[in-house]
């Protein structure tokens, strides 16, 4: 899932569907709906389809792929909304180098407003340099 | 005595909340107007839905437990249900919101909407032959998408927590209505119309239905209350 996220984020969201993801980076949306929200629907529909067709086939592997995407989605929102964006004042003092690296890398990704010059497209796994940054200082 | 069953349930549901509304630490009575407007607004489609389902036999009422006044197929008590139940729910939300700092719950809005939309959609697709299940799922999906993406309600997480707490009242009230502790239920369900999963005697659809009704009444309540607060300034 993490690999799929990286590929979708780098080549789809920052690729041919940049038009939808753009306002998540530059906050240029004017209406009530941020275009980036359409990705919610875009991810939910295959999940629903997989779970539905999987259930019809006696809960075969398709259902579990769908379930996996849903669980990843939950982890995504949990980490993104609650930890990275600090919507809940919980774990604010976390010292875990892993979490600090995630937060730092996510920030780095948002530094870039344009489509092309991005970095750190992963989510739960970020470039080693970020881990090193925090794991090394944790040792000191 | 039996004829008073349904009306007594409604009375017990609201009486404590109604009296407490006048407490000077709460003063929910200042918002009765906003509440009544929002409850009626939501009651219109929900009563239409109720009339439709009663007429087609998805559910029906045992009039032995009611006073005997029937309008459009629904006992008078069932009409009042759409004022009394939301009253206690909105009152509870109002108090929790007033006395506790619950704004941090907005961190869960995305998860709640994402998971609910997926689960309701899969259930609706798998059980499109069960009318109560299907309609409840569609109404819930539509409501959540509207509130989250269009109305940008930041209180879905808060409302969901309050609704979970409200289960303490929902289970006894709906339990008795659907037959817990009674010889025969007050509200009876056609087994072909729903999943058949019950909490005590309460069909699971009732809980989802209650959740959506609560979200909608709350949405309008907040809007009307906001207008009133603005006008007072």
Walk me through what this model shows:
The complex is a heterodimer of chains A (140) and B (233). With 140 residues, chain A is mainly alpha-helical. Chain A is built from six helices and no strands. In chain A, helix 1 packs across helix 2. The mean pLDDT of chain A is 78. In chain B, helix 1 runs antiparallel to helix 6 (156-177), helix 3 (76-99) runs antiparallel to helix 6 and helix 5 (131-150) packs parallel to helix 7. A two-stranded antiparallel ribbon of chain B has the order 1-4. A two-stranded antiparallel ribbon of chain B has the order 2-3. Chain B contains seven helices and six strands, in the order ααβββααααβββα. By secondary structure, chain B is mainly alpha-helical. Chain B starts with a helix and ends with a helix. The mean pLDDT of chain B is 93. The chains are: A mainly alpha (140), B mainly alpha (233).
Topology of this protein?
The complex is a heterodimer of chains A (140) and B (233).
Chain A: H1 2-16, H2 18-26, H3 38-56, H4 61-84, H5 97-111, H6 128-139
Chain B: H1 5-20, H2 32-55, E1 59-61, E2 70-71, E3 74-75, H3 76-99, H4 109-126, H5 131-150, H6 156-177, E4 187-189, E5 198-199, E6 202-203, H7 204-232
Antiparallel strand pairs in B: 1-4, 2-3, 5-6
Helix pairs in contact in B: 1-3, 1-6, 2-3, 2-7, 3-6, 4-5, 5-7, 6-7
Gap between N and C termini of chain B, in Å? Answer: 50 Å
Major beta sheet summary of chain B = 2 strands, antiparallel
Helix content estimate of chain A: 55-70%
Stretches with pLDDT under 50, minimum 5 residues of chain B: none
Order of secondary-structure elements of chain B: HHEEEHHHHEEEH
How many helices of chain B? Answer: 7
Rg of chain A (C-alpha, Å) = 17 Å
Strand content of chain A: under 5%
Oligomer category: heterodimer
Q: Can you count the beta strands of chain A?
A: 0
| Cα-atom radius of gyration of chain B | 18 Å
- Overall pLDDT level of chain A: 78
The helix/strand class of chain B is: mainly alpha
How many strands appear in the DSSP assignment of chain B? Answer: 6
Count helical runs of chain A: 6
Main sheet makeup of chain A: none
